[in-house]
Specification:
Blueprint lengths: L3 E9 L3 E6 L2 E7 L10 E6 L8 E6 L5 E6 L2 E7 L3 E6 L7 H13 L3 E6 L8 H11 L5 E3 L8 H8 L3 E5 L6 H9 L20 E6 L3 E5 L13 H7 L1 H7 L16 H7 L5 H15 L2
Parallel strand pairs: 3-5, 8-9, 8-11, 9-10, 11-13
Antiparallel strand pairs: 1-2, 1-4, 1-12, 2-3, 4-5, 6-7, 12-13
Helix pairs in contact: 1-5, 1-8
Amino acid sequence: MEKVQTGRVIEFYSNSCLVDANGFKAQCSILGKQDIVVGDSVNFEYQNKNDPKSALITSRIERASELKKKSIRGSKVIAANITHVGILLVQNPTTSTEFIDKWIASAKASNIEPFIINNKIDIDMPSAYLEKVDIYKNIDIEIFNISAKKNTGLRNLTNYLQDKCTIFVGNSGAGKSTLTSKLTGVDIKTKALSNNQGRHTTSISSLYMLPKNLEIIDSPGVRDVPIEGLTKEEIIYGFFEIYEASKLCKFSNCNHKGNEGCNVISMINDGEISKSRYNNFIKFLEQISDE
């Protein structure tokens, strides 16, 4: 047994974690007050080479990305080394465009690529719902139409997820657990924990490392995100079509609320920018300006 090893954190508990080192799983304590989350690459050492329970994380390798939950009180890293965020969109319970746009902005602010999973397509979709889907299709957000319950469309989604580390987000009832279970082959709701804490998993984040370099992080507590923790620049970056349109406004300090020569308003009137996206853009900016 080598004393020093490197691995990925695949489960995180309150004061310890499970690390995968090339297929070997080690229960590790954490040295000091290191900020360790699921997805982190870490170095760990055995304090006693004859005791597999003596593993201790000594350092964290620099993260390629951090998915953060930001608020006015600060930010908390949810997971590390994620490349993509899959936003579940369903008609019942209704997924609001505000929820989707918050996650797009938050993902972009973390240098993570957002995409949309239109789940529950086995249920008839009214025209108003399809128009909501088209909002994001028109701004070139990748969209996958699936039914996790019926195993419809999962092959295309699985192919897309190869060579990526993905976390799924959605409102309660959106089918996140069902989808994760189908893709990983693990019953997420009854999964036994590796540190013998039983089968209650509501607060345990896990990384599933699957064939074809497909990685899925399941973080049960992640649903909505506050917009207040983002900066004005991060919000603008999250509405990239509005940002591009604003470059052609007559005045550089245009507030896009009816100023003379506003190209954003002109494109909205022409149907080239979604009114829903615009309304959320203004709403988010006003929210942070009130803080």
